[in-house]
Write a structure and sequence with these properties.
Layout (H helix, E strand, L loop, with lengths): L1 H39 L2 E2 L2 E2 H17 L37 E6 L2 E5 L1 H5 L4 E8 L5 E10 H7 L10 E5 L6 E5 H4 L5 E6 L2 E2 L9 E3 L14 E5 L19
This protein binds the ligand Nc1nc2c(c(=O)[nH]1)N[C@H]1C(S)=C(S)[C@@H](COP(=O)(O)O)O[C@H]1N2 and molybdenum atom.
């Protein structure tokens, strides 16, 4: 009796093993086929098309959740790191002449506003201490000061411009550029920033003016703003062109 039981269960075991193994082989073949298919797909803005479709769908879902009532977590000044990292340096040519710098705000074709650093500093100042996150996987609690983009837009009557879908920001040498969706640039924590740790922004941190946008990953915090423009279509974006997510929200 016990012997028979053993024989049956060994048979069953064998059958189960064969089934499991077959399923494993089928999955393996499917994975290889899917991988090959994916890599035969055309490139869409720096990413393979199916992957780009997933990123675009994520963007749609997350921008629906996004609202200006959602604030990035802030910290006391004491939580700030001692040594602030310097990461990217695209668009920061060494021959930049800061003494000639003015922010260019392109309101429409042929209508550009030139704003000096002193004029920007004369606007109400906002400070923020937040966790600056880079998509490379590091983050730092850092302290910044500047004018809220929304205050700047109000002061310079950019009413019709801020009804468009996107803002583009470009370095003076055009070597680095980002596109930002309008809700994020008008977010109350987004700054045109001219101070770090209560002092003038260091050159390698984007002097005279950089973007600080705590609701986005580091790639969008463009250093050394040269010009700003508005558009209903997505402005060119340096890291988007290299396969990253356009929205890059947190
Ligand atoms: N002009 C310019 N701005 C830039 C970059 C860059 O390469 N050039 N890199 C971005 C990236 S990837 C990050 S993480 C942050 C880093 O800011 P930090 O150098 O102040 O740490 O700046 C962003 N702004
Ligand atoms: Mo980054």
């Amino acid at each position: 009796m016990t012997e028979k039981e053993t024989i049956i269960s060994e048979k069953q075991l064998r059958k189960k093993t064969i089934i499991s193994f077959s399923v494993f082989i089928v999955m393996l073949v499917l994975a290889v086929v899917a991988w090959k298919w994916l890599h035969k797909q055309p490139d869409a803005d720096g990413a393979l098309k199916p992957l780009r479709t997933v990123l675009n769908n994520n963007e749609r879902i997350f921008s629906n959740f996004f609202s200006n009532n959602h604030l990035a977590k802030t910290f006391p000044v004491g939580a700030t790191v001692h040594k602030v990292r310097v990461n990217g340096s695209e668009g920061m040519s060494p021959d930049f002449d800061a003494s000639k710098w003015k922010l260019q705000v392109i309101k429409s074709a042929g209508d550009t506003l030139f704003v000096t650093l002193d004029e920007i500093k004369a606007l109400p100042k906002t400070e923020i201490v937040f966790d600056f996150k880079c998509i490379e996987g590091w983050s730092q609690i850092t302290h910044w000061g500047g004018v809220k983009f929304s205050d700047f837009a109000k002061k310079y009557n950019l009413t019709s411009q801020t009804q468009m879908n996107y803002v583009g920001l470009i370095t003076p040498d055009k070597g680095y550029y980002v596109g930002i969706d309008m809700p994020a640039i008008l977010h109350p924590q987004t700054l045109l920033c001219y101070e770090m740790n209560g002092k003038s922004l260091p050159m390698n941190q984007g002097y005279p003016l950089r973007l600080i946008i705590p609701v986005k990953y580091g790639i969008k915090h463009l250093k050394r703003i040269g010009s700003i423009f508005f558009s209903n279509e997505r402005p060119a974006d340096y890291w988007y062109e290299r396969g990253y997510d356009y929205y890059s929200g947190l």
